[in-house]
Amino acid sequence: MIRHFLLFLALCVLALPLAYGQEHDNFAWNDLLATLQPGDKAALLLVHFGTTYDETRAKTIDAINAKAAEAFPQLDVREAWTSRIVIRKLKGRGIEKQTPLEALLRLRAEGYTHVVVQSTTLLDGAEMESLRRDVASVEPFFKEIRVGTPLLYSVEDCAKVADLLAARHAAAADPKKKAHVVLVGHGTYTPATATYSQMDHLLKAAGHPLFHVTTLEGYPTFETVKASLKAAGARKVTLVPFLFVAGDHATNDIATDWKEALEAEGLQVDCRLEGLGEIPEIQDLYLDHIRFSLHHAPVDIMKKKQDYAAGKE
Questions:
Q1: In terms of CB atoms within 10 Å, which of 10, 116, 258, 260 comes out highest?
Q2: 299, burial (CB in 10 Å: exposed 0-12, middle 13-18, buried 19+)
Q3: Is residue 215 helix, strand or coil?
Q4: Contact in structure between 256 and 225 (CB atoms under 8 Å)
Q5: Angle of helix 100-109 versus helix 126-138 axis, rounded to 10
Q6: The domains spanning 24-152+279-300 and 155-274 adopt the same CATH topology
Q7: What sign has the CA pseudo-torsion 27, 196, 245, 169?
Q8: Catalytic: 295?
Q9: Model confidence over 39-51: pLDDT tens digits?
Q10: Any idea which fold 24-152+279-300 has?
């Protein structure tokens, strides 16, 4: 019996690189927990943009924090928020939230030596750039810090999310009623904005022509999706936030401004104000990213080039 269990355990360990590493050639197998020495302490820092809406925070941020604590009992789970505006507003209500830098310094002061940092951002854009800079500034104080990838890091990630959302909102996409679904993201000024167009393409390539992806402050724009809906002869639209939390942007920009603008075009508009962070399967994808970080370390590009030059490819 014990022999069978050990064999099963070995097969699971061997399968981990296959399960989480196929789309990540810039990472190599490296078990962080296996490197811990006596006296070392490991933590998981979950980083969120944040929200002032208590109800959506409970369904998203608080929910994934609790789920991560249950999934990774070997790590002490902490959180940090990145939006200085949200942090300031909450402070006025007597609620204190730490920035990533403050949280990392606190972990160091408490004797933590190894940290996995996982953001709940969607794209590898400005928020991830800011987070990596914070991590780089304190990296010398720790034995190791690993930064996990955002939700939509690889094509494989995007395809998984596209499939999940297509299934979740399938009832709202009806060709007979010319009913379409529009996923509305925030948008970014960085090249990562191309991820939204990639998501739109993947949905349609997977056989979901009634699904569209657009943004509030990036590309595709409102005008882009309006033209697509008009060309398709759409009569009804369901607006869905393509955001981790359904907070201010969902309530004011999507459910109010965009709804009214599309209704002015003669469309019947419904809204489903559900943040991505409320969806259990999306939460599980973030946990998969954490698992990947626990078992893989990034490969330095200059080291790879040296290996190529030495014929070690």
A1: 116
A2: middle
A3: strand
A4: no
A5: 30
A6: yes
A7: negative
A8: no
A9: 999 999 999 999 9
A10: Rossmann fold (3.40.50)
Q: By the 8 A CB rule, do 281 and 67 touch? A: no
Query: φ, ψ for residue 56 (rounded to 5)?
Result: -70, -30
Backbone angles phi, psi at 217, to 5 degrees: -135, 30
Q: Which of 48, 169, 180, 186 is catalytic?
A: 186
Q: Which two tokens stand for residue 1?
A: 């019996």
Q: Judge residue 80's burial from the number of C-beta atoms within 10 Å of its C-beta, 0-12 exposed, 13-18 middle, 19 or more buried.
A: buried
Class of domain 155-274: alpha beta
Alpha helices in 73-217 (DSSP H): 84-92, 100-109, 126-138, 155-168, 194-205
- Domains in the chain: boundaries: 24-152+279-300, 155-274
User: Between the CA of residue 52 and those of 65, 96, 165, 254, 277, what are the distances in Å?
Assistant: 17, 12, 25, 17, 15
Amino acid present at 279: I
CB contact burial 7-28 (16+ within 10 A = b; e otherwise): eeeeeeeeebbeebeeebeebb
Question: What size, in residues, is the chain?
Answer: 313
Q: Which amino acid is at 243?
A: L
Contact of 5 with 77, CB cutoff 8 Å = no
Considering only CA atoms, give the Rg of the chain: 21
CA–CA distance, 118 with 146 (Å, rounded to integer): 9
Q: Is 60 exceeded by the pLDDT of residue 105?
A: yes
Query: Pick from 102, 133, 83, 110: which is nearest to 244 by CA?
Result: 83
Q: What is the 8-class DSSP label of residue 149?
A: -
The pLDDT-based confidence of 24 (bands split at 50, 70, 90) is: low
Sign of the CA dihedral with 9 first, then 12, 17, and 21 last: negative
Q: Which residues contact 131 (CB under 8 A, 6 or more apart)?
A: 47, 82, 100, 117, 119, 147
